[in-house]
Write a structure and sequence with these properties.
The structure is a homodimer. Chain A has 11 helices and 3 strands, in the order ααααααββααβααα. Chain A is mainly α. Chain A has a domain of 87 residues. In chain A, helix 1 packs across helix 2, helix 2 runs antiparallel to helix 4 and helix 3 runs antiparallel to helix 4. The longest helix of chain A is centred in the first third of the chain and has 23 residues. The two termini of chain A are 40 Å apart. Chains A and B meet through helix 2, helix 4, helix 6 and helix 9 of A and helix 2, helix 4, helix 6 and helix 9 of B.
């Protein structure tokens, strides 16, 4: 077992300063406490200690806490899957980043930074999980907007998938087939092979456990259950060597971009995901209710929120590359 | 996604004959239905169809269903983690094995047989999970016997681990540190390098998701989260090349045994495991209660059941090899 040891005991470092940057300046943010290495004096009362974990604020958090997410998750399930679970992730993040230079980093940046570092596996897992969980809940709302209200996005999806039913069935079947917990993502992937355009296409991505969809952390995508594959199927997953015809050399922008990425990497913007961890659906759907949970999720997605996150070129009339 | 396609539609094959072999002859076992490829006639009433899934009988099942497992899991948690979940596993197994030559195989044999077949990943997962879950519940009882009542077993464990507290802390810390769901096992590993003896030692093993502890299926042990490791740490996990001094050649019994196993394999008998999947503890302990669940589990283990499973040489006075 590889566990990360703290450089110094928790009691000797200042209360962690880690706050999700979305919270800084908001009512949820703590007062700035001095990062002090002096021993705590008796005059510092326990109640003056800053609370050390902060769950990022969701737009509809107050309503969800009272009424749950309509036609989807009850307020009890919401409490488990967001209020308590996210607090757990943030608390662990605080412990792992206390006093370190990256203690103020965004969860996404932490995930990317520590993706290739087995000694920081716990930090990666908690940062990535916090990020993914936040992503999942940020596309849910009290009055979700239907996809029909966003014709350019809808048309773009149809260009790639053929129909919205195909997209739906593919995402839900994929999520249903995953034996272990994880996420299924809809991402816009920009094709770096074609220099000078912003062409791309939609893709569906799976990430097991706390895997991340960002390709800069491609080694930790965790897109397949690596234990259900042998050497050849894993090679197939990683893909063949890309064709280099048309490149002008290793200093072109496209190549420089590619050099930063794992082999076969591309630029990906996730827009939507579903969280298939058991604690999200066990309370409201029961142990055999995963499929029902997924169906209800599809009907509850707020496509307005998705459209805001989606990059501009994914919604325009430009020609799309069909994958 | 790699999913296994059935060779023919379910409706055309006879209702599955798969029954856990420990059920055959018990009141739970179905009447032997003829495996028939003839189309079903109208006279075959729906209520004459045999029920197709059977959860293996636990000794204390009736009590657990009424009162739960004392000081551990409530009857509601038990219903989720055993009654419903095991039924789900068995049902899926039935679907995947219907009409196949291995439809009567034990779950352990199915797990070993399909450990290296990515196309049968779902079958492996469900068979192995059913097996592991059954193992977990079979060491729990209404009046667990304490370890002090089994001095030879206790002494044997102390020989390997130094103290029972060390064993306890190691197992529980390991289980607590695993980010994803899985099992932690206590196994007796017989050392095949020493020809002619039955020497061995105790080991603690982790298996993520539905990984199996049996070394004949070593490729599917899933002992580490392969996504939190890079190439070198994974090689370290697989271990160095074993020393061949003293061998008489490839036809010695030891070498023949080893030839059947993955590199570095040994003979392993699991005796105890803890199931850390969320659905087992979420109901009774809450999302932040994993550690409390593990502590309570340790106090609830029936060491009498463990002693029955443990091989004779693990409890004797023979000299033990300390790993």
């Amino acid at each position: 077992m590889i566990t990360r040891r703290l450089a110094r005991p928790l009691s000797q470092s200042s209360s962690s300063a880690w706050v999700c940057p979305a919270c800084i300046g908001s009512p949820f943010a703590p007062r700035q406490a001095a990062a002090s290495i002096l021993p705590q004096t008796r005059r510092q009362q326990p109640q003056q200690r800053r609370s050390i974990h902060h769950v990022p604020p969701l737009t509809y958090d107050a309503t969800f806490q009272q009424d749950g997410i309509p036609n989807f998750i009850s307020k009890y399930g919401y409490k488990i899957a967001w209020t308590e679970y996210q607090a757990l992730m943030v608390q662990k993040l605080n412990e792992l980043t206390a006093g370190e230079p990256y203690e103020h980093s965004l969860t996404k940046d932490l995930a990317i930074q520590f993706a290739r570092d087995p000694m920081s596996a716990s930090l990666f897992n908690h940062a990535s999980m916090a990020h993914n969980n936040h992503y999942f809940f940020s596309t849910l709302s009290t009055h979700p907007s239907k996809l029909d209200n966003h014709p350019s996005l809808k048309q773009s999806l149809i260009s790639t998938f053929g129909s919205i039913e195909t997209l739906q069935m593919t995402m839900l079947d994929t999520a249903s087939a995953m034996f272990g917990p994880g996420f299924v993502w809809l991402i816009w992937a920009r094709d770096l092979d074609i220099v000078g355009t912003r062409r791309g296409g939609w893709r569906i991505l799976t990430t097991y456990l706390a895997g991340t969809p960002y390709v800069e952390a491609g080694y930790r995508q965790q897109g397949i259950d690596t234990n259900t594959n042998n050497a050849s199927s894993q090679s197939a997953y990683r893909g063949p060597i890309s064709n280099n015809v048309g490149y002008m050399g290793q200093y072109t922008k496209a190549n420089m971009d590619k050099a930063k990425l794992p082999p076969g990497g591309t630029n990906a913007q996730p827009v939507l995901c579903v969280n298939t961890w058991e604690h999200v659906w066990l309370r409201d759907y029961g142990i055999s209710g995963k499929r029902a949970f997924l169906s209800d999720w599809w009907d509850t997605v707020d496509w307005g929120a998705v459209e805001q996150i989606a990059p501009k070129e994914s919604k325009g009339p430009a020609q799309f590359i069909r994958y």
